[in-house]
Amino acid sequence: MHEESLSPRRVRCPYCDAPFDLLLDPSQGSQLTWEDCHVCCAPIQVRIDADPADPESLTVTLGRDDEVL
Q: Which InterPro entries does the record associate with it (predicted)?
């Protein structure tokens, strides 16, 4: 992962609605990962849909730990 390929994305916690920034690497393609909220510490599912050939197609979906993404 190269720092210049990271794309910041402003998102909101699905639990407490606090805004925070995620650093995403669109060159890695689609993925499902977890991130803890920096305010309420709740576990957030992060689904990243990306086409490595088209970095502009990046979409991010956040969900609670009991949701299916």
A: UCP037225, zinc_ribbon_bacterial
Taking CA atoms, 68 is separated from 1, 9, 10, 19, 42, in Å, by 28, 22, 22, 22, 16
DSSP string over 14-67 = TTT--EEEEEE-GGG-SEEEEEE-TTT--EEEEEEEEETTEEEEEEEEEE-TTS
Tell whether pTM > 0.90. Answer: no
From first to last of its 69 residues, what are the pLDDT tens digits of the chain? 555 678 889 999 999 999 999 988 877 889 999 999 999 999 999 999 987 777 678 899 999 999 887
